[in-house]
Each structure stands twice: as C-alpha cells, then as structure tokens.
Specification:
Helix content of chain A: 10-25%
Number of helices of chain A: 12
Number of strands of chain A: 10
Largest sheet of chain A: 6 strands, antiparallel
Distance between the termini of chain A: 32 Å
Largest interface: A-B, 75 and 74 residues
Oligomer: homodimer
Structural class of chain A: alpha+beta
Radius of gyration of chain A: 22 Å
Strand content of chain A: 15-25%
Chain lengths: 433, 433
C-alpha cells in the first residue's frame, strides 16, 4: 500500500479499531514486506475520529483508545492497568529538528495507540535497514494504549538561555514547583524538557511505545529518567472498585470522574481565557505534576492497624471514612485526627481544590539495605498548578501523619498541550506555530 | 472461625478455589474481625489437593493454582504473565529459627496462592498489632499465583562455615556456576541463601506475596536482591502463542511443555536415584538457574533486519526458522549461520540437552547514560545443572552472535525441593528432617 493511501485512511482505521474487533498487530501486518491489507477501507473523514468518545467507560483490555480529539487521551481516559512514563532531555539546539521530531513522534503515537506497528506496515521495510518497529508488541492487542505528551519548564528557558525562541510562550501556570517540607529530591529522577506518559492494560505495550519513541528520537532527545508502574492507585471510573496503594489502603476514592465534563472543565482542562499572556496555545490542555513517592514499606508493616487507620482516617478493609460504615459514605472530617490524610486532602480542607489523579504503584527491586524500593508514582492533572497541587501539597507536607512513612524523591511538572485534532496536527503545534 | 477448624479445611478450600468461581480475597474475609465464613465447608482430605492437576492448561487469569503436590507449582505450571523474584540472605544463625520461618512461610504461601490474606482471616486481628496481611491484594483474585522456593549453595556452606549443619546434604548437582566468557556479574544482583519465585497474572498479587514473605522473615532473612518481570518470554503451553522478547523476537519456541510428563521426568524433575550421596531429599525437586541478562536495546534497534534475523536464525515477523515458512516448521540448522542463536541453543547442537525456560522481560527504568535498563531475566529449571544450563551456556557464551548485544550481569543457582505434600509439610522439610 502506498503511503498516501494509508494517510487518507488512518483516521477511519483509528475509529474502526475502537470496536470490539480489536485485531492484534500481527493481523494488521503483512509478512515479507507485503504490507498492510487495509487499503480496501476506502476514504474516511477526520470527523469520525473526532466524534468518537475518548473515554470509554468499560475497561476492555484489548480495545484501542482514539488518539485524535480536543484533549489528549490518557487524562480523562479510564485509568489503564500499567504505566511507563519517560522524561526526556532535548539534546539538539535546532528548533526545526525538534519540530520534525514532534511530527514523527505524533505519527508513531497515532499508529501505536491504534495497535499498529511504527512505520510503513511491515516489520522491516528494507532488510538492509533497521526495522521501523522494534517488534516486541507485534502479536499484542492495542491494550487501550494512550500516549500523553508534555513540555517541561526547561524547554522554554534553561540556565537563562532561550533555547528555542519559546521563552515568551511559557505559561504563567507552568511554575517551577517550590521546595516542600520533607522533599528529598534526586536530580536524576526529576525534571525533563519533555515527557510521555504511556498507559496500557499490557505493560509490554506501554514499554514498547516508550522504547520506540526513544529510538525515533535518537540524536535529538535522550531519556532523562523513566518509571514503570505496575498497579493503578486511582480510578477515573467511580463505578469500578477503588484500587489499593502499597500501604494496603484505598485512597483517592473521590477522584474526578473521566465522564464528569463539568468538573473536568472546572479543575482539569485549561480554558481559553487562561494564560492570555503566553497566548492561548494551552487551551484544552492541562498541567501535570509527577512525583516519585517512596514508601517506607518495612516501617509501615510494623505499625499497628489502629495507627494505620488513624493515619489515613479510613478503615483498612472496607475503606470507609472514620466513623462511617461504607467506602462511599460521606466523610465526617471532624471524626478524624487533624493530621489524617483523608481529612487534609479533602476539598473542604483546601478551599474546594480538586485534582485528577492517575498514580501508579511501583516496585523497583530492593535498595542497598534490603528494603523494597517501592511506593507511589503520583500523577495529577489540573487546570493550574498554582491552584491545584501546590496548595494541596503545602497542606499535606506540613501536617499529614503519612509523612512519617513516605518521602518525595522525584518531582517534575509539565504543560500538557491540547489534543492532536487530526492527521495534520502534531504534538506541540499550538506552541510552535 | 477457630484456627484448628481452618487447618482441617484448608486443603479442601485449595481444591475448591481452583474452580471457575475464584472469589476475590475481599469475599473471603470478614471485616471488623468477623473472620472467615468458610467454616461451613466440612472435613476435607489432603487427597483432593494432591490429585488436583497442578498444571491447568487454560490461562484463566483469576483462578488459583493448587499449592500442594508432589512437585512445587510454578515450574511446569502454565507460565503466568508477571514475575516478582526475590533472593534472600539468611541473617540468623539459629537452625530452629530458620525452620520456624520456613514453616511460617509455607503456611502463608498456601493462603496467598489460594487468594486468601495471610494470618487468621481478617485484615487485622488486634487493632493494637500490625495487620497479619499488608492488604494491597485484598480485593484481587488469586491470579494463578505460584510461589516456588529454592535453596542456594551458601545455605550449605559459606566461607568454609557449615552454618546450619547442612554441609553434607549439599547435592552434587548444586554446583557453583563457572565463570562464562563475557560474564560481567554484579555481586548485588547475584547469589542468595534462599529464593522465592512469585508468578501471577496480576503483578500486584506477585509483589504482595514477596513483600509479605519478607515481612514475615524480618530479623531472620533479608532481601538480597529482587527482580520484577513484566512480560513472559517463554511458554510451557505449546498451543498458546509464543511471546516475544525485548529484541522483538520469538525465542524458545520449543520449550518443554508443562504437560509432557516424559520430558519433565527426563530433563526437569530430580529422580530418586539422583544425588544419593547427599540423600534423596531432592527427589521430585529441580534445579533453578537465574540470570539477569541486560540487552543493549539501543544498539540492537540500529541493527538491520537482516542482521537481526541472522543473529537469531529466525524471521522476525512470523518467527520461522531460517529457510522455513512457519514458526513451528522443523528448523534446518545448516541453513543458519554457525553463530545463530537458534542453531546453538538447539538440542541437536547440545547432545539432546533440554531445559525448561520461564524467563521474563524486565525494564528497570534507565541507566545513567539514558539507556533503557532492560533485558531478559532468564529462569531455567533442570534435573542437573551440570547437564543442563552449564554445557548449553558454555556453547552459547563462546559462539552466539547474540553476545554482541547482551551481557549477563546477575547470576544465581538454587536447589528447588520437591512439593509441599500436605498441610503438615513445609518448604525444605526433606532437607532438614
């Protein structure tokens, strides 16, 4: 199949692959360079992709999530089971080379989220060239892969240098996070010029996506740090059961629902009137705070059940707020200790502030002292970091009883641009255009 | 429910929970100390557990795998999706304390593999005491969790010291592995007095199991190193599709099937006549070699398709042997380069040697140079390491074209005792008795 044919059918294919058919990648590729057999799908309009619901409520592990839309997928999308998150340093100082890379990345992301290999369809293309796709996801389903792209403060300015002529475009909401009490941040796990959050129901699909983006970016970007998450700790689908964190507790039971457009518009999506100074290029986007929170598992595991429940302000088994019977009973904050996590994190203790959480548990083996290197990779989306994570974390960092058992060791903040609207659009276009 | 009632019903419950009902752990626990509601299941015989098929062919992600049997589960068992492997140093020098721990571990393993929390059923027991179970798997299904226990050479003798009066019981087959060409082993990722391999279809269930065993062992053992694996690279069910490794290739397409009792008896299970010198305590057990194999992903990804296929001796897309059409066509070894991986690893190139592989892909973030710290955590079971991994790896380490792209950075070998036969049996009993 000729590339131009493929371009015209891509958006139709994206929409098509959200159906229950969800073919494996193998079914989509020919072998020996025979190429795609999808050319028979004629025509196609971008409207089909744009009108598709980007937040399917049902967690069908095999389906595809549409890549194109007003907002990037992977924010309001029903939280997938696994995560691979990567922060990149941009190593080129050539603005055009960076733009070319973002276009290449966008094209690859559209293919991978649809469950197709990177490149022109077959495994290899020329036998004498490296394969377009690294291959380890060839037999796997789309697995609800989402790839969510963000831009860190250092892309706009680094050590006083306006690297890409973007300094004046930096949104006021994209602040450098202040140092919070108790922070013990490692530079090697913090910051980044760019980021990509890969979420999928199959970890191999998420890892494959980050690896192929890193490969495509060779010579222009380098992975600064990356993090795998094996278990979601938040849900954006209130009817699903609330996952547990590594302390064995349900947390964030009242997360913003991915279908609650009112709350999303109020707390998550950047509005057209926001950040006029830097231009409205972030309208429809969001701001992401990522924190690697190490949990002192061994200390926690020697703490009494009563202490654990007091620390959270919640029962361990059912997950009910202190003094209540069921998980979703309205919390009575005054029944909790003033240092209880649920009480301090509740919107009523924070002037109504809400953030959309998509955090994941991680376990990265063992540290040098035989302790599990485990914890929570906290990911939160918000309309403005200054009104979202910052006041919330100031409150928690000062008072939360949980601080005895956790430590923030990595930190980053990113502007997450609006969605890629169609096949001619690309990650970051509104910023560079 | 009283503990003694629970003891008598456990094996029945184990068998019962292998059915399609597979309740979640939450369904099995009362809240507020009300305890198990399973007392109504009367009587029960160990025969039910022993006769249950330990290798269900169907990969029902939610089901339980029976814990009791002639062989340990997690070897011939259909390979689960995820891995958490831990090697432990024994920190006590008290033989009785070690035996007590192994009994405690065995009881906890029987519960967790059945999808039940550790301890007496409820989350907590006393509010003033730490919970018996850490809780993060409470809502999750058994997820085919298997826990497979092994004993390293250093438990028998370390620096010339007979630590537990076991020196004369060390099997001749449990050799210290020789140094192979190209080995670049890190001490912090090698060795161990004991090991537990946790495999499950849900990573949170595998992590929970290792974490709780480490917690129970506090003061007697310490985790020396651990490894998470996110994607299986081998299958013991020949009818399932062969998984791909991080190089994007199918490998080990001709693994020993978990249902092939003839080949298992010949190549995997220790026979009664083996190792008479050390006593027959290993009869029904096996020997495990674990190797952390770092893959140089970035180098590989810049290698041409032809080179990649020549290195493996196999096509990338279909996985067919060189010169053949389909994955399971009989390989024609002479069609491959003498350095091709398939040719060198084939039984015909190794005097008929076969090993049972259960390896997993890993990605542990990024190294200091921005490269993915990724590769294969190789796990192989065999009747005798001297006739299995050692000659095979000697052949591969000398000649395999793949060596340009990989490096062995961790290594360990363990004697894996026979299965726990019933509720009175425990991990390692045949060794210590």
């Amino acid at each position: 199949m000729a590339p131009e044919t493929e371009e015209t059918t891509r958006s139709t294919e994206d929409a098509r692959e959200t159906t229950a058919r969800t073919p494996s990648r193998r079914a989509l590729i020919g072998w020996g360079g025979a190429g795609l057999a999808l050319g028979a799908v004629a025509g196609g309009s971008t409207a089909a992709a744009l009108s598709a619901d980007p937040t399917p409520a049902a967690a069908d592990g095999g389906a595809a999530v549409p890549f194109h839309g007003a907002h990037q997928a992977g924010i309001a999308t029903a939280v997938q089971d696994r995560l691979h998150f990567a922060a990149f340093d941009v190593t080129t100082d050539d603005r055009e080379a960076l733009i070319d890379l973002l276009k290449e990345w966008t094209a690859a992301a559209a293919k991978m989220t649809a469950g197709r290999p990177v490149g022109e369809g077959a495994v290899g293309g020329l036998a004498e060239a490296p394969p377009d796709d690294t291959g380890e996801a060839l037999d796997l389903k789309p697995s609800r892969l989402t790839l969510t792209f963000g831009i860190g403060p250092t892309l706009f300015e680094k050590k006083g240098k306006d690297r890409f002529g973007l300094k004046d475009r930096r949104p006021a909401a994209l602040i450098d996070l202040p140092k919070f009490p108790g922070d013990n941040l490692e530079a090697a796990r913090s910051g980044g010029d760019l980021c990509v959050q890969a979420c999928a129901d199959d970890p191999q699909v998420a890892v494959h996506a980050i690896r192929n983006l890193a490969r495509i970016g060779f010579g222009k970007v380098a992975v600064r740090w990356s993090q795998l998450g094996f278990g979601k700790t938040s849900s954006t689908t209130p009817d699903a059961h609330t996952p547990r964190n590594m302390f064995g507790f349900k947390d964030g039971t009242r997360n913003i629902a991915g279908t609650d457009t009112g709350e999303l518009d109020k707390h998550v999506w950047v509005g057209k009137s926001d950040d006029k100074g830097a231009g409205a290029w972030m309208a429809g986007g969001s701001y992401l705070v990522a924190r690697r929170i190490r949990m002192h598992i061994e200390t926690w595991d020697r703490t009494s059940l009563k202490e654990q429940e007091d620390v959270f302000g919640r029962s361990k088994g059912e997950g009910s707020p202190a003094g209540r019977q069921r998980e979703f009973d309205e919390p009575h904050l005054k029944s909790m200790l003033p240092t209880a996590h649920v009480r301090l994190a509740h919107p009523d203790s924070n002037g109504g502030t809400r953030i959309l959480r998509r955090g994941y548990s991680f376990t990265d083996g063992t540290d040098g002292l035989g302790r599990l290197d485990a914890g929570l990779f906290f990911l939160a989306y918000q309309r403005d970091v200054r009104d979202g994570f910052v006041p919330l974390q100031k409150n928690l960092a000062r008072h939360d009883a949980l601080n005895e058992y956790i430590q923030h060791v990595g930190s980053a903040v990113f502007a997450v641009p609006p969605g890629v609207r169609d096949k001619d659009d690309w990650w970051g276009r509104t910023l560079f255009a």
